[in-house]
Amino acid sequence: MPGHNPNRIKGLAALTALEDSGKLFCFPADVARVIDKDLKTVYPALERGEIPHIRIGQRYHISVAWLRRQVDGTGEPEPGRQAGSAA
């Protein structure tokens, strides 16, 4: 697609593109694109442990499978919350 920028894909399309790439892990910018949030939201969530990750040097690596479970609503509840409880 001419003029197509893969970094502008958001939401489910961004997640599908990650899965189609065959990568097992993604980066905070990818998570931000999928959940349509700013990096200023994603990084604090990583630092608080709300987004499980592996840190290698200065880089955060987040499981694409975990991200899919979150989008599908089949992931683990947030720490301190029980499944089905109201926010």
Brief rundown of the structure:
With 87 residues, the protein is α+β, with helices and mostly antiparallel strands. It is 43% helix and 11% strand. Helix 1 packs across helix 2 (28-35) and helix 2 packs across helix 3.
Topology, pairings included?
Blueprint lengths: L10 H11 L3 E2 L1 H8 L3 H9 L6 E3 L2 E5 H9 L15
Antiparallel strand pairs: 1-3, 2-3
Helix pairs in contact: 1-2, 1-4, 2-3
Counted beta strands:
3
**Count of the domains:** 1
The pLDDT mean sits at 84
CATH topology call:
Arc Repressor Mutant, subunit A
From the spread of the alpha carbons, the general shape counts as: globular
Would you list the SSEs in sequence order as H and E?
Answer: HEHHEEH
Q: Order of strands side by side in the largest beta sheet?
A: 1-3-2
Q: Under the CATH scheme, which architecture would be assigned? A: Orthogonal Bundle
Q: Quickly count the helices.
A: 4
CA radius of gyration is 14 Å
Helix and strand content put the structural class at alpha+beta
Q: What fraction of residues sit in β-strands?
A: 5-15%
